[in-house]
Design a protein that fits this description.
The protein is of the alpha/beta class and about 450 residues long. Helix content is about 25%, strand content about 25%. It has two domains: about 130 residues, no CATH class; about 290 residues, Alpha-Beta Barrel (TIM Barrel), CATH 3.20.20. It binds 4-nitrophenyl alpha-D-galactopyranoside. It holds the Pfam family Melibiase. Keywords: Glycosidase, Hydrolase.
Length: about 450
């Protein structure tokens, strides 16, 4: 790491704003006295953070800002080529100064503006440099995850499909989340709760709504057929072992090598099948896996491997709408229509183990606010779905957040679980016009 800035500050009022690596990584501002959010359980590190350890101080992935707190301008330190390389940026307080270090090329900008506006101005310049057009407006969605989780059944989807019509809710896309598939990696084979994968999507489109599907296209679970039959498609460490992509669903996870011709054909097979079934919305999740460091078939950087993987999917899905989740933020610029900018919402306000990268309203709100500047510039922001059923703690606050920071708006309650307030609020949040931007530059 080399020093890239030394900023005189008022230690009582100064704030450092960190931006994390991927959708679920904590992103927010801190006073110098605060301890930044870090993982609590080591098994959540790979799935939520990039750094292997955090030395004392502040740590942003490709983006960090310092507000000196004395009225002097804000300093933004940002990746010089955010779609090619994302340096880690560290900041520590020493003797009336914040010293900023980076391990790769960064741009240091001084802006007489609030931190959100300073970030927005940087984002405007990135958009201009890359020649990006305005993002496509998002459809409204109903998502199965936050009511049924991995236990979703075919009849859960059918029942909610019927209720959408009965209640006349303004939902464009019915998005089936995790649980329809046989295994992580085996996307075209049904789980025991579905007669087939194809059937449910054809029934959705048969009602006149659009069908959406969840995948974790770059993850391969230890129990999957893909793992058993094609270990050569996985990213490896220097010693030849499989690189870990974390642990979830009670099994170890590995990363698909997006540069391997066999893996490319596998992705083609999966996504062209989805396309032939009329699926026009894709939530691609846990995609950080394609950007893990390791040995690949072709010798490309992890970010290059990630971008190739997403570009491949894009090339297979026609003009379907593409939502990134668990996605490295800066490396995704220009690749997705919408982006999850937060960890998962949960009926509980506080995260179970104190780690705000884990499901909670507190963590989802922190990220949704701190990444508001991205909306309308890099993509449409997805702050995660509205959940409005009575058991949701502080549900009025969550609905207020989705209303204020929702670019993509979704509902994820069993519609028969909503009371009058929940139903009215769902209808309202899904019907509101979405602002073009949340932060002006
Ligand atoms: C499906 C879910 C939903 C949800 C996604 C994502 O750290 N973790 O182990 C971890 C697990 C799941 C998770 C996020 C983090 O949720 O955000 O909307 O699609 O997968 O499994």
């Amino acid at each position: 790491m080399r020093i890239v800035a030394e900023i005189p500050v008022d230690p009582r009022c100064a704030r450092v704003h960190e931006q994390g690596w991927q959708s679920w990584s904590p992103s927010t501002g801190y006073s110098l006295a605060q301890a930044p959010h870090r993982w609590v359980a080591p098994e959540h590190r790979i799935g939520n953070y990039r750094a292997e350890s955090f030395p004392a101080g502040f740590w942003g992935e490709g983006l960090l800002a310092v507000d000196p707190g004395d009225g002097a301008p804000v300093t933004v330190v940002a990746a010089a080529s955010p779609t090619e390389a994302v340096p880690s940026i560290k900041a520590t307080y020493v003797d009336q100064r914040v010293v900023v270090y980076a391990d790769g090329p960064v741009e240091v900008r001084v802006e007489a503006a609030s931190v959100p506006r300073a970030f927005a101005r940087w984002a405007d310049d990135v958009v201009k440099a890359l020649g990006l057009g305005a993002p496509r407006p998002a459809p409204t969605i109903w998502c199965s995850w936050y009511q049924y989780f991995t236990e979703v059944t075919e009849s859960d989807v059918d029942r909610n499909l019927a209720l959408l019509d009965a209640l006349d809710l303004p939902v464009d896309v019915v998005q089936v989340d995790d649980g329809y598939q046989a295994e992580i990696g085996d996307w075209l084979a049904p789980s025991g709760r579905f007669a087939s994968v194809r059937g449910v999507f054809e029934r959705i489109t048969g009602t006149g709504r659009r069908a959406g599907v969840w995948t974790a296209p770059f993850l391969v679970g230890r129990r999957s057929r893909v793992f058993a039959e094609h270990p050569e498609w996985l990213v490896r460490a220097g010693d030849g072992s499989f690189v870990s992509a974390g642990r979830n669903w009670n099994q170890p996870l590995y990363a698909l090598d997006t540069t391997h011709p066999g893996a490319v054909e596998h992705l083609r097979e999966v996504f062209t099948a989805f396309r032939s079934w009329g699926i026009s919305f894709h939530k691609i999740d846990f995609v950080y896996a394609a950007a893990l460091p390791g040995r690949r078939y072709e010798d490309v950087s992890p970010i290059e491997a990630y971008r190739r993987g997403v570009e491949l999917i894009r090339s297979f899905i026609g003009d379907a709408y593409l939502l990134g989740c668990g996605a490295p933020q800066l490396p995704s610029i220009g690749l997705v229509d919408a982006m999850r900018v937060s960890p998962d919402i949960s009926p509980e306000y506080e995260p179970g183990n104190g780690d705000v990268a884990q499901p909670s309203q507190r963590g989802a709100v922190l990220n949704g606010v701190s990444r508001a500047f991205q909306h309308g510039r890099f993509w449409v922001n997805d702050p995660d779905c509205l959940i409005a059923r009575p058991e949701v703690e502080r549900r009025e606050e969550w609905a207020g957040h989705v209303s204020a920071y929702g670019g993509l708006r979704g509902s994820s309650d069993g519609l028969d679980r909503l009371d009058a307030w929940g139903l009215d609020t769902t209808r309202r949040v899904l019907s509101e016009p979405v602002p073009e931007r949340f932060v002006e530059s």
